[in-house]
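Notebook entry, structure prediction.
Reason for the run: the old model in the group folder had no record of what sequence produced it. Starting over properly, with the input documented here first.
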Amino acid sequence: MQPSRMIKFIIISILIFLCCCTKNQFPNLAVAEEEMVYNCQYIDTLSETSDPGKFATSKYAKFYDGELKVLERADNLGATHIVWLYNYRIGSSASIYRCDD
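New structure, fully documented this time:
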């Protein structure tokens, strides 16, 4: 391989590696309204708050992570649908359900 092609190959390989190994993997949950989950099994109500210490510790830190925490916990509990009760910068809360369909 020529040096320029080798550099392109290395850069593309690194980009593919970084894209495949992301820290945040978003769960596959359907956002629903109460009427949509009427016949579903209720699992739990989850609440999370954002970490206020992140504001002072790092300028590169993601300021709001409460929503992602709720989504990850819902996915770990086997939920298929989520109904948001509130979703603000300081925290989030949602009811989670498991539907058969």
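Summary: The chain has one domain: 26-98.
The old model has been moved to the deprecated folder.
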